[in-house]
Amino acid sequence: MLKAQRVRDVMTWSVATIQPEATLAQAGLTMFQRRIGSLPVVGDGNLVRILTGRDILAALRREQKVEADPDFPW
Length: 74
Description:
With 74 residues, this protein is of the alpha+beta class. It has a domain at 18-64: Alpha-Beta Complex (CBS domain Like). Strand 1 and strand 2 form a beta hairpin. The chain has 3 helices and 2 strands.
């Protein structure tokens, strides 16, 4: 069945994006409200990066200077 289906038939057409100048709080709120785990970052009409929930948590960890679990590879 997967061989017969095309990506265009199952993909999401209405994609939430964010600008590189947006704050992490804005990005995190957008991801939370839309219940998505990643957010394309678009600047000048081009994909700059894909921001993930993990990226936001890692930035928060660095900002708060929280020590990572030594057994967990951040």
